[in-house]
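Shapes recur. Our protein:

. . .
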Amino acid sequence: HRRQTKVQNERRPDALLDVDCLDQIRQMISSGVDPQKVIDEFAASYQGFPDLCILVQKWLGVAGIKQQIIDELITSYIRGKIFSVFDPEKLNLEEKSPPEWLLVMCTNSSWRGVILQLAEEKPSPITDYAIQAIAREGKLEELRSYPTAVTRNVSLFLDVLAASLVHLWRIQPGKEAPRRASPGVGSAKKGPEDEEAALTQSIMSLCSKTDWGYLLTQLILRRVAGTVPACREVATRLSQSIEIHAHAQHQAQVRRLSVLLSDAASHPEVASCLSAMFIKGTTNPADTRTLHDLYLSDD
């Protein structure tokens, strides 16, 4: 049955172009399939979709369509195809090194977008490796808009957060403008206020994705506000914005975390009463009485 299944798999269109084609051929021959039958099956499956794609591209050019539009059409189709057939289980990083084509894709802005979207929607070891490769290339600004992918790794989260905070600081009035890559085709140059609003929004989304991310960010911002006077206003404003954003999405969790961030954390009994109230979403006589007694006590 396994032998029959393998033969049927090689009848898929363009199975000859699979990355692991040679491995499949060896496995089929080793399992007893006649070598001539293997070759025949692979040859019969070839439809030449890549060649057809190139041919269509040439036809569109002959029809007078601009090359930029042609490239966008083809890229859009390929992106959709990748999302529909992507199967992370077919690439096992524990058994083999990451494929060279993945590293090449990480160096191209268009394909980086595909990888980042896959990491956001279909996280896997292969996309995790790609994210790390993109981070090593210094593309931290691009990663910020993909919170699910970034928050799978604490170290990566901290790197992206640090780069985002530095960027936010630099675009404040009177500060040095951040160094940025040239805008892509069709992108409009944003004004300082628009850029700050967009940057703040992406930071809020990133830091509100997980409890630990929210807590860690608030601790960092409070530390900055208390020790770096020049950044106090920006850090405080951002901290408040993140709290409001997170509270709208995760009300109960943010209330509990607020207790940890407040001075109540240094008073275990107070923190316990407040946490119980926040979890239940209501007060109760026992906790209210305890808080009243603690308030009146000399401690």
User: Anything to note?
Assistant: The mean pLDDT is 76. The first helix runs from residue 2 to 9. The chain has 17 helices and no strands.
